Amino acid sequence: MFLATLAPLSASAENEEEKKTNEVMQLVFTYVERNGFQPRTYESEIYQRHRMYTKRKGIIARYVPGMLRLERGVRNYFSEAEIHMRFRDPGEADFKVKAFHSTATYMEPQRMVDFGRFHFRIYAPKLLQESILNPLHPRNRSFYRYRTLYYGTAQGKQTAHISIKPRFTNEQLVKGDVDVDVKTGAVRHFSFTFRYGFRTISLNGRPGAEGEATLLPERIQVISRFRMWGNKVDESCDMTIKNRFLPMDSLKEDSGAPLAERLDLTRQCLLRIDTTCIITAPEHFDSLRPRPLTRHEKEIISSQDSLNALTPRRHRIIGPRTEDLLLSSHHFSLKNEGNISVKLPPIFTPSMVAWSQSKGLSLQTRIRLHAKLPKMDGACYFSPRIGYTFKQDQIYWQLPLQIDCIPALNGRFSITAGGGQHLYSNRQAEEVRHKLEQSTAYDSLVNILDSFGFHDYRDNYIKTDFCLSPTPGLVLTLGTRYHLRTLIEWTALAKATGMKHHLSSLAPRVEVQWTPRQYYYKQGKRRIPLYSKYPTFLWCYEHGFPLKDGHTGYAKMETDIRWRIPLYAMRSLFFRAGTGFYTRRSRDCFLEYDFFRFNYVPENHNDDMSGEFQLLNARWYNESRYYLHLTSTYESPMMLLSRIPGISRVVRTERIYLNLLSVRALGIYTEAGYGFSTHILDLGLFTGMAADRTFNFGFKVSLRLFED
């Protein structure tokens, strides 16, 4: 009896195997080019069968961004969906849920669309629409290692089974294997595993057999696992896909069509404006299923109304309804037609939490109300919000009302009432400037601003704007600004020194915004902007007139340029440059800019650190008669921390900030920083340097835990 053992390959054999693997992968990387396949718009009809097992332990899972709202105990669910997808260059896709039913109480059709995003182009740079670097694209080869494990057959063709591993750990990279036709380079089967948010995803699929069909998958299975502090969510989604390539679009950049026609992508965005109702009848899927339901799936459907937690019930401090009221947001319609919708925040959950050294802790929440206006082919939006900063001990509030009108010209009227900001007048600023002339060190200047003995005015305002867009990318705005500023601590001493208790002004305003080559689609007659490869330019002029007995007249002008440049491998550059100055200043006017301001409470979580100065004292924003600034941000999902095992599972995106500012008295101020985003927070570390090389350090953190 003889025992056979597998000896390790010699160095020459390993080199030969590596050479063969490289030859096969080179066929994969050049497959699209060698076959003459061009980027095409295509449509897909997707049937999804979704099974889910959940185990909820505690309420912490309610605050995980993107997490399905879990019912108590152990549950099994079954769902089906029919989705229509349309893809267009440069990598955008629209989804429309045509039919949907589910035994899960809180399952929304949108969640099925999220699974539909795993329907991808086999040889594209990214596996998903917005993330995950595809190891089958030539520009990503430097991120992966490839190795042939064995040879076999698939669909009657000789294939190589190739293992794929990332060169370092990162959420944007995958590991897995593919079966590749060794003669043509066509992928016959693929299997990938990667992290996506808080989930571990396993993706298995099979492309079409011949021609352009080989560029897209026809079958996909997505298996998702979520684990956090005893909470479990296991999901399995099977997709059967029918793809159809559309004729080449004649409106290309190099075609002879007029520019206005080339910018109009309405024909490619029909799903975005599709308002047909979703079919919810389970029997609709009887004719769609490529395979009959299993016995277990039938049991889940039949027991939909009698599902109970398998774990024993325990004493609850608060009931389900009370918990829902306090900890969940609510979105509902006031009319059956859905003309009016309201979104209310949870009572005990702020919509945004942030902390920084210069601003301290800030909280805010908001309510959103949306109403359609069929008679004027428009809509009305009302989203009041309130915020509080602990360090400044100030409450900020806004009541913005926006009405869309004149759809052919993208007409929009808005009126916003708000207040809470503390400012000092030009008269007070002149006294500060006199003291600033006696000091040059940055920390001394800040101390002067912080310790100066005057009292601020509290600002309440009403802003109105009317916008028209006569051509794509050009927006013209006419508006007014009314301010009523009240001295916070009105005393006999303030009156004796000539201070005014109330100061008011009214200012007409004009603004021009221009984005060259703005692509758009039409929803009715209104143009909805999509994207542009060029920066956005803004210019505004405002002339204030005093009211009553104050000397608050002024005139100011500002310009601003904003440009986000997408780079390869999900990297990007963001630039913002601007200047502003006052051409006229009365004694009691207030120096306040529109494009250069201290944001006590940011609008949203979309990286509010970009384009802003994080360490600059609030007083500097209203001290100078002019400003000139340049801010820049470089963003990458694979920079420093995202390459370290363990940490890379937490860090999603890293950023480098470099900002320059010139204002009176402060001179040239430089601020540099490094930041990163995780799934629940943004963190940035910053250092600031004044003209005399005096340094300042600080950090900022914004929680995403309560995002909705």
Major beta sheet, specifics? 16 strands, antiparallel, barrel
Give the total of beta strands. Answer: 32
Main sheet strand line-up: 13-14-17-18-19-20-21-22-25-26-27-28-29-30-31-32
Report low-confidence residues grouped into runs of 5 or more. 1-7, 305-315
The CATH topology of the largest domain, please? Porin
Give the distance, in angstroms, between the N- and C-terminal Cα atoms: 68 Å
Shape: globular
Name the structural class. mainly beta
If you compute it from the alpha carbons, what radius of gyration comes out, rounded to the nearest whole angstrom?
30 Å
Beta-strand share of residues: 35-45%
Average pLDDT for all residues: 83
Count every helix, treating DSSP H or I runs of 4 or more residues as helices: 9
In CATH, the homologous superfamily of the largest domain goes by the name membrane protein fhac: a member of the omp85/tpsb transporter family
Number of domains: 2
Write down the CATH class of the largest domain: Mainly Beta
Any idea what the CATH architecture of the largest domain is? Answer: Beta Barrel
Helix proportion range: 10-25%
